[in-house]
Design brief:
GO cellular component, one term: endopeptidase Clp complex
Order of helices and strands: HHEHEHEHHHHH
CATH class of the domain at 37-126: Alpha Beta
Structural class: mainly alpha
Helix content: 40-55%
Pfam family, one: CLP_protease
Protein name: ATP-dependent Clp protease proteolytic subunit
InterPro entries: ClpP (IPR001907), ClpP/crotonase-like_dom_sf (IPR029045), ClpP/TepA (IPR023562)
Organism: Nyssa sinensis
Number of strands: 3
Radius of gyration: 30 Å
CATH topology of the domain at 37-126: 2-enoyl-CoA Hydratase, Chain A, domain 1
CATH architecture of the domain at 37-126: Alpha-Beta Complex
Strand order of the largest sheet: 1-2-3
Length: 226
């Protein structure tokens, strides 16, 4: 017994396009752009954070962010958070020039925006005697020039601190003879800071803006919990 098997005309099926659904890949759910980094998110809230010693790269970034925020809105305030050892490291080794701090100061002074500075952690390195780096193989004439530059920077810093703290030049110069460390209370007495902001100090916080208003001014939006 023979069974004849006939196949349909293949040409008829080839006339139709066969549609195949592509399987869903995990790559399709990945964002096409990388997520913004934390400094960018802070910058969006008009917050500039200094958390490293003042080396040229850090100074360049801070000044660029300040100028950008002024360009975005010259009327809105800028919030500058500082947790930096200034031009030195934690071990006291000099890693930058005092002019790095002067550059940030000059940029702040020429901005139209109101700038609120908040010290968190360490913000002490500029309240000390500028240091002369190790001369090493430096010629004596060059070492003398550097020493004169340090004296000029010291006098400039003394005058600026006296101007902004309300102390006499002699008082500031005497404090800068050696590294002068201050806690928040001593810093307020010396005139380096205006207020101490921490929870549990109702009297000190009475004239400060409430957290909701501060968040609003900083551009921070709090989403309601779902």
């Amino acid at each position: 017994m023979f069974v004849e098997i006939r196949f349909p005309d293949l040409e008829m099926y080839q006339a139709y396009a066969i549609k195949v659904e592509r399987s869903v890949s995990y790559n399709e759910h990945r964002p096409r752009r990388p997520p913004p980094d934390l400094p960018s998110l802070l910058l969006h809230g008009r917050i500039v954070y200094i958390g490293m010693p003042l080396v040229p790269a850090v100074t360049e970034l801070v000044i660029a962010e300040l100028m950008y925020l002024q360009w975005m809105d010259p009327k809105e305030p800028i919030y500058l958070y500082i947790n930096s050892t200034g031009t030195t490291r934690d071990d006291g080794e000099t890693v930058g020039m005092e002019t790095e701090g002067f550059a940030i100061y000059d940029a702040m002074m020429q901005l139209k925006n109101e700038i609120h500075t908040v010290a968190v952690g360490a913000a002490i390195a500029m309240i000390q005697q500028p240091r002369v780096p190790s001369s090493g193989l430096m010629p004596a004439s060059d070492a003398l020039i550097r020493a004169k530059e340090v004296i000029i920077n010291r006098d400039t810093l003394v005058n600026l601190l006296a101007k902004h703290t309300g102390n006499s030049v002699e008082t500031v110069a005497d404090a800068m003879k050696r590294p002068f460390y201050m806690d928040s209370t001593r810093a307020k007495e010396f005139g380096v800071i205006d207020k101490i902001l921490w929870r549990g100090q109702e009297k000190i916080m009475a004239d400060a803006a409430p957290p909701e208003e501060s968040d609003k001014n900083a551009g921070i939006k709090i989403l309601d919990a779902i």
